[in-house]
Design brief:
Chain lengths: 275, 275, 275, 275
């Protein structure tokens, strides 16, 4: 069972938390604590060996911690997620396979696509697929339809698995810190259209990818995980796109595992990742 | 200030430690705790923001923890080390440079060599160099002379920076868990003479290195850090030796930093590394 | 179009090859050449920009090269493969996904399993699955049945995607240098049963995987690719198995891409990989 | 002996080169060829086993190759270099150590510093150190003094080993493609002052470094090598600076080895690296 806590820092927080757990005869199997002294912020993740009533423990912890404490006890061990995708198969397929064999650490409720390209792969896994086209309607109408499509689901996270539309602030705010995106980010970062072409022209020796929470500035939210893959002069733009897909798949899988294991705490624009 | 603790596990240890620190108005900046449930062993590393009397705090912690608790408070922030080397310069030079610019996290007291090859580089850094030749004497006499050479120093760690002699149990026991070795270990591991020639003949695509504490089975002690470097078909045995030196230097530097920062706890044949 | 050549080395081989290509007005887009001076062996891989009659060019090259030259011109750009698997899904699923979206660089003809566990995932991709049980029959009978099952297919490579049976020499010889295996290999390598348990007990900080051609000594054939993944003290044996699966999937995918792109040349027990 | 060639591409270049070498009974030990089909540019690197008169062979190759061909035969096997540095020791020390033990693949002629901080470490290696202060003089006067200081040396490369001054175009043009810089570049790249502070605030999980040739846009020249090092939430800005130094040292060492081994060809703003 996992306990995740963040609040304003002060002396004695670990003692307070550990004292309460001791009273309840709960053994701490693993504990990670971090204080960001610039933000004066306390972060902790505690694993205990027994499973007890989460609501009660959560209330008890809130009772002894500072008023601004965010306490999550035993978050759904299997998270419920929805995946948004467009045409590219690589990230979605990896998620579908892990979901199918129960190793994702989450359960995929459905997939939403703004094109029909990925409908077939979903069908093969008996996964509900909702086609919500952005064509011939306004962005607002598109997002309202997106929202109507998923609002009936009780969802922990929305995964943008190469979803090639930028979501409006009103949509993002409906799911604060619940939307995770995978972004092709390069060294040096290339802004604007066709980043792989820019990377090719610059002659970079590494390309990378970044998984992050979506906030109102797309590609600017708190970073969960980043990795790179080496490339060289023999790579065409097309080869770089291909290598980029491999690293996007790997980084998103890694980030999702961290999030689903409740190892990622977010405050303002940064994450604390208790790997 | 750092506190490092290990003992038999039981419910309430974190509460006990954190409670004592709270009483003393000490704020925990960072805490890592791990319980090995198979060994039933508790490991913790705590960083606190203030600097207080270490001896008093250590005694107080021992007073409230289980009898078998090993508690180290504020270990010498700058460790004192002696380096043993033979002919190869790469690991020793890296240590000498970092020592010279005060970024090693330790202070090198002297270097001991069983050949004179590295005397000159030590002289350039005003570093005492003791030549203790193993030639024309028995192993026992050699090691006794080694021991006499260093026994006058108050030393925290002895670093075998490519020291090509195997130390006898009696010597190792004088410095239990204080001797750190860097070992060329391959994938798959090659035993016996000339491992790089074997690696070349096997056509491996990776070579690696392992930094570990020395116990009575050389190359079998608790592992601190391991890394690899890719190689390919164009590497001759000589090229592999060269690549091996690069990775040996990097792994040893990494392992020493972890040890000198008191991030490595050892129990039986394994380490807990709170990176 | 790709040309792959290996033969005994002698002066003038590149001139001979390039001269013939020039006569035919073929431009060399990329050329990799390597001489193993210990084996006195010449290896080359040439990419040319035009597509011409492979049989004619192959005969012409053989006509001007040493008698022992192995020349392959324009090997099937899409290789035909059969996958053998047992119960673990990770490597097979990755292959099935890439095959389904035509990015594998090969076409999967069928899957053979000695258990029925992976029949369902194959069915979902309309992939023929042949169940050949090893139970209640001799090893010889099992392998004869395996052979009968696949002998009707014209196959370039057999991929052992976590196939947990050791194939007999007679079977391996039927498919010389056509069988590729993925092996969990550790640092240091652990022999015998339960390598992950051994790795856990040894406290390694890295685990690895090796993709190799199968020869009569299983796990001893020419290595194609190797990679590692870091682990730490918090990993249980089960966590190591999980991390091992991630790296096995990645290494096998990488090795297959190299083989399918005709970038891997084999001679005796080693590979030349023109990445 | 190494031959490096680049020119406009056309059919038959490999045959022309290899034919000439065959006539001279020279065996090609290793050959890398690459055609950039967008630039229509041919690049080759050939290693031959014998050592012969470089001037003669160079002239002969130029005689048979296109007029724009750049041919370098047997470039000084030991390159002559000058190192520019400011206050940071890490890159310079690594170069001095390798130079001292004759494993750099180049010979350091002298070090030029615009501060006196690194004079002592040079003295310890009997390395000439020229102090050229930029203080209290114009940039132009500073660079003229720099130029006067080094113009007497016959130099192959100038290494900016954390030299914190931007060189003017006139200076850079004196040493076209002979100046190599190591740059802290991040993911995403941070422009302007204090990149590590920006990286800290952005909460990146990787920091990187780039070694590149200096052209008139500092930090924009052809990239030779790039690598990254993982960081996490526990890194302060100071820790990031420290990690950055480790990766800067490693990337520069790697890039220099590639350049000194004549494995890096440059055309316009990109490199071909025949690793």
């Amino acid at each position: 069972m996992v306990i995740v806590i963040q609040c304003t820092d002060k002396v004695g927080l670990v003692a307070t938390i550990a004292g309460l757990l001791q009273q309840k005869e709960l053994n701490i199997v693993s504990m990670r604590e971090h204080v960001d002294s610039i933000q004066n912020r306390f972060y902790a993740r505690v694993e205990i060996s027994k499973t007890i009533d989460a609501t009660v423990l959560e209330a008890q912890l809130k009772g002894v911690l500072p008023l601004d404490a965010e306490v999550i006890v035993n978050p759904n061990p299997v998270k419920k997620i929805i995946v948004f995708a467009t045409k590219e198969y690589h990230c979605l397929s990896d998620i579908l396979i892990r979901n199918h064999f129960n190793t994702l650490g989450a359960s995929v409720l459905c997939v939403v696509g703004n094109h029909s390209h990925l409908q077939d792969i979903c069908r093969r896994f008996d996964m509900p697929f909702h086609l919500v086209s952005h064509e011939e309607i306004t962005k607002e109408a598109f997002e309202e339809q997106l929202y109507r499509t998923i609002s009936g689901y009780e969802v922990d996270y929305i995964i943008l698995a190469k979803f090639m539309r930028i979501l409006s602030p009103w949509f993002v705010e409906k799911y604060t810190l619940q939307i995770i995106n995978i972004h092709h980010s390069f060294l040096p970062a290339f802004i604007g259209a066709n980043p792989y072409k820019q990377a090719y022209e610059r002659g970079v020796k590494l390309i990378g990818a970044t998984a992050h929470f979506v906030t109102n500035n797309l590609d600017e939210g708190p970073i969960i995980a980043q990795q790179i893959i080496p490339v060289n002069h023999s790579y065409t733009t097309k080869d770089m796109v291909k290598a980029g897909k491999e690293i996007e798949t790997a980084v998103l899988a890694n980030a999702l595992q961290l999030v689903f294991d409740d190892k990622v705490l977010v405050y303002q624009n940064k994450t604390v990742v208790f790997e």
